Amino acid sequence: MVDIKWDELGFSYIKTPYRFIAHWKNGAWDEGELIEDNILHIHEGSPALHYGQQCFEGLKAYRRKDGQINLFRPDQNSQRMNRSARRLLMPMVPEELFLKGVHETVKANEAYVPPYGSGATLYLRPLLIGVGENIGVHPASEYIFLVFCTPVGAYFKGGLAPTNFIVSEYDRAAPQGTGAAKVGGNYAASLLPGAEAQERNFSDCIYLDPETHTKIEEVGSANFFGITAANEFITPKSPSILPSITKFSLLYLAENRLGMKVLEGDCPIADLNRFTEAGACGTAAVISPIGGIQYGDTFHVFYSETEVGPVTHRLYDELTGIQFGDIAAPPGWIQTVTP
Ligand SMILES: *Cc1c(COP(=O)(O)O)cnc(C)c1O
After folding, report:
1. Which residues form the signal peptide (predicted)?
2. What distance in angstroms lies between residue 218's CA and the mean position of ligand 1's atoms?
């Protein structure tokens, strides 16, 4: 293993030796290969640069106690990348090619998969970008599928400690736009609202539904969930939310492992009192408890501004226990990379 202070890792780029690259040209993908160069050479007219024709994924590799490496539901990332690709008129990446890219990248950079118990993981970033000579608003003539990786620590500083959020007046996506696709354009639109939230000392902002601005949709770049006193796990449903794999996993675990009632439905911003706990979830964020939400002039505290609630804590233990291989996973959730 390389010499890195695993406990001090944040969420920033550290160069690893290998990345996987495949090219689409004349209607077909090549078989892809591992390369060492971390600089892409692409045409100045590439549609990814001008018109945002690109999408990406995010998933992690987890070191188990026995030294082997787990991937958490990478087939779901592959399927979601293809849904994003379809929305932006990009070619599908066959699941076989996607998984080959992910597995080979982890294997080649095995020395960078943080040790079990450090809390750190190897973050994988698959990308699909439209490249090649172009100037008009057209889909690209060529595409690159890339997978690179970097070791990361906790996403929100403080780990499982709650942080506060502020409701934004901006929208991150349009009602029938690209909110459900994991595309860079959504993120470009979120930079200013995120920066304004951080200027006011909030972790990030909360986006309401773009149609009525009355219901919670997203927490920064994570999905929202709330817990009620009636032992319910509730998460918003909307066509402009990014369908989080972590969220769907928590819906399953809350119901089948914690015996909770689960539902996807409206989470009105005017009715935060119904939740005894609330959190943000995603691959990078894992589960981040929400201390309080600022909405206009009012600040609403859920469980506590300083302590994580018991149900959120149990969900976190169940999810991360499965990811790191300490708790039995539901069928098909874990793929093992043997170094
Ligand atoms: C990626 C992402 C999430 C989290 O999805 P996971 O599959 O759980 O990692 C949530 N919201 C947005 C906007 C995202 O881009």
Report:
1. none
2. 9
